[in-house]
Amino acid sequence: MAVDVRRSRGRAQFEPIQPLRAHEYVAEQIRRHIALRLVQPGEALPSERELAAMFGVGRPTIQHAMRLLEADQLVEARRGRSGGTFVREPAEDAGAMEELMARLARQRKELEELVVFRRTLEPAVAAEAASVRRRSDVSAIWGAIQSMNEAQTEPDYIRADTTFHIAVARATRNRFMEAAIEDIRLRLNDTMSLLPESDTWHRRISGEHDAIARAIEARDAPEAEALMDLHVANSEQSVRALLGAIRRRLAS
Fold first, then answer.
1. What CATH number labels 107-251?
2. Strands 84-87 and 75-78
3. Chain-centre distance of CA 63, in angstroms?
4. At what angle do helices 108-132 and 199-217 cross, to 10 degrees?
């Protein structure tokens, strides 16, 4: 298991990184389907019993996931004979969403190659950063993390996320690594804008970023590489799921 590295009295202390729990995975999948209009605004979600069967979990897990989605104002519960859990009307423009999905569908092959390239390159970049970083580099990395924590909007959060990855690349003092990471982030920008927006999602990313930053600060190259590998693997899984959902949405 990947671990969070902390230094105390000259010795490393390790704390496990907590993965998403079952109800959080359920909520993220439903959230993605809502964003992509696989479930239309005003449409009822399947019943708790049906969702439990679809996801292979118990009804308490589904109930917990619904509470997360209600807190994000994505769904609302209605009582009565025709009651159930319904998708709320979204705030974003539907036409712009359709155009963005169509563009990503056209770029699907390129994006699939890109996430493989990222998975190969970025862990090595983190390892190099840990090996050669300077104090100013560590400050820049933590500054980006602070900006993510203070972001008030999703675009600001994504911008700070990009700043974090570029700060890690700049710590390598290698212009080619930095340029490659900048190019990856630029090409992934549209895709990142469609990934789930939730406190759960943000906590997961923040935990992974914190662990990477601590490993770089501790000059622990193997740990930085392993933690970045975990981080980009999680991101790759989300991007592939998103592209698959877009394909199904446009084919329906």
1. 1.20.120.530
2. antiparallel
3. 23
4. 40
Sign of the Cα torsion 98, 101, 105, 106 reads positive
∠ CA 160-105-243, rounded to 5°: 60
Report the SS3 class of residue 28: helix
Look up tokens 């602070």; give the residue.
146
Residues 6+ away with beta carbon under 8 Å from 47: 84
Spatial distance between the Cα atoms of 95 and 78, rounded to a whole number of angstroms? 28
Cα–Cα distance for residue pair 87/85, rounded to 1 Å: 7
Task: Judge if pTM exceeds 0.70.
Answer: no
Nearest to 107 by CA among 248, 251, 247, 252: 247
Q: Are the C-beta atoms of residues 185 and 162 closer than 8 Å to each other?
A: yes
Per-residue pLDDT in tens (0 to 9) along the chain, 252 residues: 444 444 444 444 444 444 567 888 788 778 767 765 667 778 889 889 999 888 888 899 999 989 988 887 889 988 877 788 998 876 556 666 777 788 888 888 999 999 999 999 999 999 999 999 999 999 999 999 999 999 888 778 888 898 999 999 999 999 999 999 998 988 887 788 777 667 777 888 999 999 999 999 999 999 999 999 999 998 898 888 888 888 887 776
Second CATH level (architecture) for the domain 23-87: Orthogonal Bundle (1.10)
**Contact status, residue 227 vs residue 211, Cβ threshold 8 Å:** yes
Helix (H) or strand (E) run with residue 107 in it: none
Residue 14 CB burial class (10 angstroms; 0-12, 13-18, ≥19): exposed
Residue intervals in the chain for CATH 1.20.120.530? 107-251
CA angle 105, 110, 115 (to 5 degrees): 105
